[in-house]
Amino acid sequence: MRLQPVSKCAFRNSRTIAQLIYLAELLLSAVHCPSCSCVDTKVIDSRESEEGAAIRRRRSCTDCGFRFTTYERLENQPLFVIKRDGSRQPFDRAKVASGIQAAVKGRPVEDIGIMAMVERIEDKLRLVGGDVTTSDVGHSVLDELRAADEVAYMRFASVYKNFDDAADFRRELALLQKRSTRA
Description:
Blueprint: H1 9-12, H2 17-29, E1 41-49, E2 54-61, E3 67-73, E4 80-82, E5 88-90, H3 93-104, H4 111-128, E6 132-133, H5 134-148, H6 150-160, H7 166-182
Parallel strand pairs: 4-6
Antiparallel strand pairs: 1-2, 2-3, 4-5
């Protein structure tokens, strides 16, 4: 099969491949109307939501007039934990929550309080930036439990710090009392 020569005039009115790719990306990233799939929508109202973690936008389709809501959220970079053996794993909120739940079992700490602790721990670790160690995670959990419930703190500390005998408990209790008198 032989290609036919094309005159220069054929390219003058056509778009370059780079321009076509740009337009395709623009169309794919545009907000489509859920009713008619039109990409031409107009923002009617914008407000902060989720305590400033997202922006709620009320939109209207310029083609069919359908109104809908979109949310913009910051995409978090994945948080990784460096284990003691050197392996790297994604941060798992469920693991932190289960550790806290085990420590507060039978204590007057509600589930919503546990989830708030996990949220603060993750936020604190994200502020460190990059990868965090298991030690960073453990110390953050201890800080949260110390403020929430001293018995839960001692339970978690006994497992986390690998207490061997009663002297370890006495030493940790002395540290806990020393910190509570400073606060």
